[in-house]
Amino acid sequence: MTFDTEIDRRNTDCIKWDKMESAFGVSPEDGLAMWIADMDFPPGPFLQEAMQGLLARADYGYFCGLESYEDAIIGWMRDRHGWTVEREWMFTTYGLGNGIAITLNALTAPGDEVIIFSPVYHEFAAKITKTGRVVKELPLAIVDGVYTMDFDAYAGMLSGRETMVIACSPHNPAGRVWTQEELTALADFCQRHDLLLISDEIHADLTFAGHTHIPMHVAAPQIADRLVMTTSASKTFNIAGGRTGCVTIPDPDLRARFHRFFNTLDMQPNLLGVALTRAAYSPAGAAWCDALCTYLEGNAAVFNDGVNAIPGLSAMPMQGTYLAWVDFAGTGMERPEFSERVYGTARIAATPGHTLGKGGESCLRFNVGMPRARVQEAVDRLADAFADLQ
């Protein structure tokens, strides 16, 4: 089990590598892809075995037997996160972007305002807009160098037209793992203002030593009547191509509302995603995940320590995920200038912070889910690109 193995994903129809030039002007021939949130590690052998099993069976028709897939999800959430999930609570969607879009359509109305805590994963705002709802950005505060939610300030920012919150736990882009106290405060905020809550927990498995992810339903069971949980194996095991996510709704009334819309779509799980998820949520997958978290924590230390040694650059401390958040405000440069140094000089494709909402204008997001030698190379390239600030 090694994460140092280099793999070449160029010219394989991999978005991360084959679309980086059109997105950022960084050629995959001499550039580093550190933008879209998937990892450059070989798949775990348990995933390969699952795919070989499908090939050996040679049957790609209609299928049943979803009970073992559901059991794998239930067991994973119980054993790794202390969360008891009932089978009837779960809906399988085509990934979590799809799950969030369905939830917006099912549980809110066009024109409703939907709260996000920015900067945050850009697809939240995209899904809100695409479904005809209105994005309501509430800015995260920075306390002791990390993001936090400032509910005292938020109360005065509300219009009264808000009906839902979409929260990211752990947080993307900054790798923040929310505490019990913070999750309780979020639950209180939702109750006080009569808001539904989508808790997007796609990065739940990727936490570092000293930090524990708490599922929202575990942290605040008192808001089960307004809570939608979204989870997937896709980020942990790099199987987003399986397009399989799980929307979990504990409350029967809320679940019935969701089901009425979901049922109109006539959706069924796909064979590939089911097989990959079942293989991922296994004892072998658990051991691989443990090793992955240790390796990612090492990558984060190499990247953040290296970046923080460059004058004018500041990387926010990471508590989990593989997404590093770097602020270039200290350089005194405007976004076009520091971006050109990263894209043009360092030849690194990173996610522009301004696309993740207010508070991200001077930042870039870097994916460190790759062999450590590439992480060190990225640090070296950034140091060279900003060498004149030394």
TrEMBL record:
Gene3D superfamilies: Aspartate Aminotransferase, domain 1 (3.90.1150.10), Type I PLP-dependent aspartate aminotransferase-like (Major domain) (3.40.640.10)
Pfam families linked to this entry: Aminotran_1_2 (PF00155)
UniProt cofactor(s): pyridoxal 5'-phosphate
Keyword Transferase set for record: yes
Stored InterPro entries: Aminotransferase_I/II_large, C-S_lyase_PatB-like, Class-II_PLP-Dep_Aminotrans, PyrdxlP-dep_Trfase, PyrdxlP-dep_Trfase_major, PyrdxlP-dep_Trfase_small
EC numbers for this chain: 4.4.1.13
Top-level taxon: Bacteria
Domain Aminotransferase class I/classII large: 57-382
Gene Ontology molecular function terms on file: cysteine-S-conjugate beta-lyase activity; pyridoxal phosphate binding; transaminase activity
Keywords assigned: Aminotransferase, Lyase, Pyridoxal phosphate, Transferase
UniProt xrefs under PANTHER family: PROTEIN MALY
Family in the record: Belongs to the class-II pyridoxal-phosphate-dependent aminotransferase family. MalY/PatB cystathionine beta-lyase subfamily.
Listed name of the protein: cysteine-S-conjugate beta-lyase
